[in-house]
Every structure is written in structure tokens, then in C-alpha cells.
Amino acid sequence: MKYQNSIAVTAVLAWLAAAEVPQEHSHRKYLIAVNELLELNNPFNIVDSVFGFLGNAAAADGAGDVTDLDCLQQITADSAFTAAKEAGDIDGMASALIFRALERNTLQVGLRSVLCNETAVNPEIDAISQHQDPAAENAAEENKAITLALAQQLALIGADPMLALESGTFPPGEIGDPTAAGNTCNDETDDIGCIFTLNLLVPDAAPGEIDAAVAQVLVEGGDANAGNDLDLVESLIPICQAIGVDVGAGQQEEEEEEEEEEEEVEEEVEEEVPTGTGVNIQTFTGALGGPAPPVISSAANADRPFEVNGNTFQNAAAALSRSCAIQNNACFNAANAGRLAEGTAACAAQEDACLAAASLRKMRRNARAVTYSPNGRFRFARAEPRLARRQALDFGSCLDPSIRFVEGLDGRAEASFGPAGDFDHGSALNVDIITSFICGQLASRCGADAAAVEACEDGSADASGLEGQAAADAFNAALGV
Length: 481
Fold this sequence. Notes:
This protein is of the alpha+beta class. It is 42% helix and 6% strand. Residues 1-19 form the signal peptide.
């Protein structure tokens, strides 16, 4: 990072060794994401995002122009969120929100970190605060409330609200522990985050509680900005599809039949998605779980002329792929909720047909067949895999973890790295940003098996020492994609 100060970082490492309370790298993938955003917007000249998690004495060395060190974490997240918001980067905004909610180091087990008393520039950031030491009094209830508030903000910007669970912290330590270390980990070489790779994270809430919290703000209309100037209702349609909430209709009667609710959601999609003055190029007519959102082609935005539910794209293929993916998510949620007799297999077949209508493919694998594991996740039988390990790889609910290195991603003039398959992340010049994100998603959101995560981490390590297309090829080869 161009603002990195090696002397300051060295001094902080010395302080951490003496304090024996390090955990600031535990969620490292979010530090990496925020650092990249600080390169785009860093009005306070913050040296590195990691300083936001340190005690004030150590944080001062990397706080730049921030004077209230209790607010360094919030200001860092706020600056990153602004950068992502201006770029239309939903993943970046989500990373900044999660970063804001992470626990900050304290000098003893059970000691709370001081809350920031300043108002953030972005109301989304201002709506949440950092997790507290899990051994502190009432920390479980407080941390759950933080996670649910985070989930609401993630939903309102169009991100996956379940990502809020990744802001969770460790099991509570023992009060009076003389090392003050608790049950933590800290590995600055683990770009995913040791709390994930070592499976140390304790979820603050159940998925059902996340859904309920999100449904509350969607039904009420919410006060948060949806990440851009779109009408709030329009921006929330794909989220409401996914969780079965009727946008703008108020609280529904409890006795309403599920079939009627599903029909209302489908009608809402057709009525509320903005069409603008452009032309809908989505020709697919399948409607399991609801129709695929329109893909509007318009000359009004020459740089990103294709729009799906308020999100813009540089090329038609990416926009059509997103439209098919949104429909597939809604279909899977309807099937899992018991509203589709055809089941999830029909949803997968529908997505294949949706992509085929646009002359696209869902995956780049040389796969002979697709079967389903007992939990309903995809398993692929590969044709003559080069390594026996790859033969058993299970990417869970995700399909294609491959990456690409091409020009023109996100409007960049130079070539950059980005996901080539069904992972949604902005482009990056550093391959580690993309590979660590994909590996983290495989381990958490996708539910991939251990072999797939290990292969991903191996590929990430292989790619890290290379540049350009060679780095992308090395990562893809490790995963057999």
C-alpha cells in the first residue's frame, strides 16, 4: 500500500509482542480489502487499516491525521466506504461495513474498547459499532445486536446480509488471564484470516435471526441509503426475492397463503424494476421462483451501458450473468422454503438455460456430470483430473472459483485481476486481493469441503509470487478450473 510506513509497523509489532494481546489480523481479508479502498480515498493519510484495531498508544503511529484515536477504526471504515460507494463497488462497501464491526484489541480479557463519539460521514457506517470482548459483561447480547444491525446495512446496500456473521469474534477468554490473550489467533501471513481458517469464529446470531432483522428494515422501508441514488424500493427487489418479503406492501397478514405471497413477489419484480429509456436484452422467459430481472441496455452511460436492478456493467455478458444469478438465488430460496415442488435441481437447470439463452456458460470446468451431495450441494465428476485431490473437490453451493487477468475491468485502463466465475468482487491489481476473497468465500459462504479450501489456499500461494496471466493460470490450475 502506498501509504505504508514500515517504521511505524515495526514499532507496532514490538508493542504487540510486549502486550501479548494480538488479534488484529484475525479477519485479515477485510483489512486487505479496506487497504485497497484507502488507496482510492484516504483523506486522513492513515498508514494501514490494521492500526484501527490497536490500542491508542500503538495506533498513534499509523493514525495519520486522525486525532481522536478512539474513532480511528470508524474513520478508516468511513473512508473506505466512501471510496467503494463512489465506485459503485458493493463488495467494497460490504467489506468496509464488516471492518467497522470487528472487535478492537484491549489490554485484558473482558475489557471493553471505547466507542467512538463522532458521527460518521456515511450513515451506513454510523449505524454500527465494533464488537466487544466476548468475556465482557452482556457481550453476547451486545455483539448479537451489532451483527443484526450490520446485516441490515448489508441488505440495504444490496450485499448478502449473512456476511454479517463473519464479523463475529472468538470464544470468551478467562477473566484474569495474565497473558490477556484469551482464545484468539493472529497470523499476518494468513490473508483469509486465521479466525476463519482455524474455525475459531463464534457466530453471534442464527441465520433465521438475520433474516428476521433484514425483513424488518425492508418492510419498514429503512432510512439507510441504498449505496447510490436509486429509489430504495427498486434497489431492494433482489433481496426481497431472496427472503420472500413483499417490498413496500407493509406487514402482511399472518394467515396469507405462501402461494399468494410468492405471486406477489413475482408481480413486484415485474412492476418495480426500473426500465428507464433503454431496451431489455434479457430474452429468457423461465420463471421458477420469479422471472430473471431485466437487463437494460442504454446509451445514457457509455462506460457501463448495461443495468440490472440498479447495478451497472461494462458488457452485456456480465449483466446477463448477473440477471440469471439473481433469478437463481430467488429460485433456490423458494425451493429451500418448500414453495417449489420441483426442488433445487430445477433451479440449477433453469440457470443453465438462462445462461444458454445468452450464449454463456456457468462454469469453465471439464465436467462430465453434475450430482448432488446429501446436503444439496453440487459435486462434479471431472474428466481425467491431473491430480487425484482435484477429483474430490466440492465447491459447495458455488460453481466456478476461477480468476482472470484482463484489461477493462471496472473501467481500468490497465489489466487487472477479477473473478471469472460466479464470485462477485471488484477488480484488483494485486492478485492476493482476489484469491483471498475467493478462498474466504469458499470456506464460509459456499460451504466448500476442506480439500477445495486447501487447493484454493495452495493456488493463492502459487499465484502470490507471480504476475499477470501467469498468476491467474497458477491459481486456476491449483483448483483444476
